[in-house]
Structures are given as structure tokens and as C-alpha cells.
Design goal:
alpha/beta; Rossmann fold; seven-stranded mixed beta sheet; 6 helices
């Protein structure tokens, strides 16, 4: 699936993420762990922010100045209704150029929708958009080898891609980031998240 096809699927699914049926605790404890490594509370970015607003609210509560990014028109529309004072970018993360650097970037259950051959470019872009000592929390599939699949969810096709754990760690190192935490947090499922930090002066 192309990013535009994924966006069309999420246009149809946006109401689910905005409803009481969606688990608003998803990813919260993992982000709270990531905050422990964060020393600055300036600009933050929620990549694939969706319509639930739960991570936007969490980042605001901690003291960040938050922006959201999503490719889905309907996700962004609902997100703006929920948080009218937050800056949202509607764009394909593969093509989007960050307007500045951030102290915290969340890419929670979002970048795995990016085409497999764009995964590395997107991760490098996000690492490059971190301020020194900035934090990235990034979830993906914990795979031994790169793979991708398309499966239905609530009647809509959704594409998921992931590269290998060694490739992920290599990319972080080459992007001047250090892995502070790596966890299979839904074992035996292959859901993996990492907390990475941009190397700063004196590190």
C-alpha cells in the first residue's frame, strides 16, 4: 500500500480512535518512561498523532509545546477539534520536512505504516530533527529480518512494515543517537519500542 492508500483507510477509521472504544492507555506508560531521560521541555512532535489526542494531552501535561503530524485528512480534522490551540501538520512523513528541531519526538505505532523501503529514511529524518539530548520514542515490529504485510482492520486494509532490530540499532548509532531503552512490551507479540537520545555536547 502507498501512504495515500493508508491515509484513505485511516480516514474511514478515524472515528474509532476518537471513540471510547479506543484504549487511551495505549503507549502512556512507555512515554512516561521516556520522559525520565528528557531534560528539556521545549518543542515536541507526535508523528502519526491520529485523532485520540491522548499523547498530545500527555505531552502538554508534562510541559512540552506540542505539534502533531498525520497524513489522514479525517484524523487531522478530529485532532484539531479536540485541540484547537495545537499546531497540526497534514503530510506524508516520507516527504515532510521538519520546520525546526524538537526536544521530544513520539513515533508511536505510526511509522510502521511507512513503506519498507522508506523506513530508514524516515528514522534518519526523525533523529536529525532532534535537538542535542532530545528524546525519540519509536515503536516498530521486533523482527529478525525486514518484512511487510497488509491485513484488514475494522474492514479497512492496513499496511505494516518493519526492518530488523540490528538495522534499527545501527541506524540510531549512525544518526548520533544512543539507545536508552529497548523492550518487547507486548511479548509474545513482536511489538517493540525503543527510547533513543541524541548525543549532546559533553556526552
Amino acid at each position: 500500500m502507498t501512504p495515500q492508500q493508508t491515509a484513505a483507510s485511516y480516514d474511514q477509521l478515524a472515528a474509532h480512535w476518537n471513540s471510547n472504544e479506543f484504549n487511551r492507555e495505549n503507549g502512556i506508560s512507555q512515554h512516561q518512561r521516556a520522559f525520565r531521560f528528557s531534560s528539556e521541555k521545549g518543542p515536541a512532535l507526535d508523528v502519526g498523532c491520529g485523532s485520540s489526542g491522548r499523547l498530545i494531552e500527555l505531552l502538554l501535561e508534562v510541559g512540552f509545546n506540542v505539534e502533531g503530524l498525520d497524513i489522514s485528512t479525517e484524523m487531522i480534522r478530529l485532532a484539531r477539534l479536540r485541540h484547537p490551540d495545537v499546531l497540526f501538520h497534514q503530510a506524508d512523513v516520507c516527504e515532510w520536512n521538519p520546520p525546526h528541531c524538537y526536544d521530544f519526538i513520539s513515533a508511536w505505532d505510526s511509522v510502521w505504516h511507512v513503506p519498507l523501503d522508506e523506513q530508514e529514511n524516515v528514522l534518519r529524518k526523525l533523529c536529525g530533527a532532534l535537538n542535542p539530548k532530545g528524546i525519540l520514542i519509536y515503536s516498530t515490529g521486533g523482527l529478525d529480518r525486514p518484512d511487510h504485510i497488509t491485513n484488514p482492520f475494522l474492514g479497512q486494509p492496513l499496511y505494516h512494515a518493519g526492518w530488523s532490530v540490528p538495522d534499527l540499532l545501527r541506524c540510531l548509532e549512525q544518526s548520533d543517537c544512543v539507545c536508552r531503552h529497548l523492550e518487547f512490551d507486548q511479548f509474545p507479540e513482536k511489538h517493540l519500542y525503543v527510547i533513543a537520545q541524541k548525543i549532546g555536547p559533553g556526552s
